[in-house]
Structures are given as structure tokens and as C-alpha cells.
Design brief:
elongated; single chain; Arc Repressor Mutant, subunit A; alpha/beta; Rossmann fold; three-stranded antiparallel beta sheet; 256 residues
């Protein structure tokens, strides 16, 4: 019975990304202590991470999907998140924008800003904003990836040295309470760490599918974020740990 119960909990974690302890108590008609032991055991086995009120899935991923496919994934959520992120940019700001399908969407909302300087290693972001009269665009050089047209490597890092910035907007490949922010690519992760060290305000953007995901390369602890923007499809149990660590979490509705 215990084995069957834990297998069912694993299925719930895999399907939903989280479980709530009191719901499990009611579902299986067992005590809170029994569910606590189940979740402790699953955490020890690496299947879950316990958080206040339940547990979240720890999904380890190595490879990311193609850029064109990522543009289509969760498109309504990304649109809403991007609009909220763009609203955090004020006239006169100097902003680092990291590559990503959602950060490119952010760029589309910046055309009417005034006296804003954008520093990016994303060619699509630079091209989106190059003709905007109120925006100065600086594109970092380096080795260009063919799938998303982003620059990385030593040259990009050297180019970054001459700049200072107020804010960073970065897409999050994976976020979990214990591992923080992670990414699929080594060079991109290294450059993101440099980006983060350049600013006081880090704005992380992640749709609900990125929570509980652990990718291959570490970027930084989650508390390094000042703002975390996600969509209303993200259950509170998934983002509450970041609120408790001092991150300002913004949950935005989206239209299907």
C-alpha cells in the first residue's frame, strides 16, 4: 500500500509539478505524519523537494528544444510575462537583455521608451530595437549560435566589461529552491553570471513550465533575483519559496 501510494504521488508530481500535503492526506485517508514521511523519503531519493505545505517536482533536463519550437510553447503566457517585464523599464534606464524567446517578446514592448540604453548579446533583440528612436542599442560580439543567434564566449565577456547597467532581464531555463537558476548551455550560463554581477536589479521571467526544472549548469541562487515574473498558471506552492526568500514575485494573467 505504501509503495502504491508513493507511486501515485510521483505520478502527481510528474503531471502537475507539485503536491499539497493536506490534499494527499484527504486523498489517501492517512495521517499528516504518514504523508510527511512519504515526502521525506521521496526527497531523499531525489524525486521531490519538500516546501512549506507540500512538495514540488525536481525535473532534471539536459537539452532544450529548438528555438522555433520554444517560440510557440506557452505563447500566451510569454506574451503576458513580457508585457509585465517591459513595464518595469523606465525612461533613462540602461538595461541588459539576455537571449531567449520571452526576452525577445519583451523587446517588442519597448519601442515607445525614451532615452533607454539596451545592451544585449541577442541579435534578434538588437534587430528588434535598432530602429527605435528612443533606444540606444549595443550588441555584444562573440561566437554566434546558429539556433538563436546569440553571442557568447570570451569576446562577449570582454565587450561587457566596458558597460554598467541598472537592470537585467533574463529568461529562466530552470528554477528550483535548492539549485536556484540553471541553464542548458555552459557558455551562456557563464555570461549570465557576468550579467548578474553588473546590476543591482535582476528581473527573471519564467512561465509555469520552468519551475522545478534543474538544468545542467548553475547560474546563481534564486534569491539573487529582485523580481520574478510568472503567469497565473503557476501554483502558489511553486513560487512561494522565492517570496519567502525575499524575491518580489509578480503573477500575471494571460489570455488563451
Amino acid at each position: 500500500m505504501r509503495h502504491t501510494r508513493r507511486e501515485t504521488i510521483r505520478e502527481l508530481l510528474n503531471n502537475d509539478g507539485y503536491v499539497i500535503a493536506q490534499e494527499l492526506v484527504a486523498k489517501f485517508r492517512v495521517s499528516s505524519e504518514t504523508i510527511r514521511r512519504d515526502l521525506e523519503k521521496m526527497e531523499q531519493e531525489g524525486d521531490a523537494q519538500r516546501v512549506h505545505g507540500g512538495a514540488i517536482s525536481v525535473r532534471r533536463t539536459v537539452n532544450e528544444s529548438a528555438y522555433q519550437l520554444r517560440q510557440q510553447d506557452h505563447a500566451p503566457e510569454k506574451h503576458a510575462i513580457a508585457k509585465a517585464a517591459a513595464a518595469m523599464i523606465s525612461d533613462g534606464d540602461t538595461v541588459l537583455i539576455a537571449p531567449g524567446t520571452t526576452t525577445l517578446e519583451v523587446a517588442t514592448f519597448l519601442h515607445d521608451k525614451s532615452n533607454v540604453t539596451i545592451i544585449t548579446n541577442s541579435l534578434p533583440v538588437a534587430m528588434e530595437l535598432a530602429n527605435s528612436p528612443g533606444i540606444n542599442v549595443f550588441c555584444l560580439g562573440g561566437h554566434i549560435r546558429g539556433d538563436d543567434y546569440s553571442a557568447s564566449g570570451v569576446m562577449a565577456a570582454d565587450n561587457l566589461d566596458i558597460f554598467n547597467a541598472d537592470k537585467l532581464i533574463m529568461s529562466i531555463g530552470g528554477i528550483s529552491p535548492d539549485r536556484g537558476l540553471t541553464d542548458y548551455r555552459m557558455e551562456e550560463s557563464a555570461l549570465l553570471r557576468l550579467f548578474i554581477n553588473k546590476v543591482d536589479c535582476v528581473i527573471g521571467i519564467a512561465d509555469h513550465s520552468k519551475f522545478g526544472v534543474v538544468s545542467r549548469y548553475n547560474i546563481c541562487p534564486a534569491f539573487r533575483l529582485k523580481h520574478l515574473i510568472t503567469d497565473s498558471g503557476t501554483p502558489e506552492i511553486l513560487y512561494k519559496p522565492y517570496q519567502e526568500s525575499g524575491v518580489q514575485v509578480h503573477v500575471v494573467p494571460f489570455d488563451i
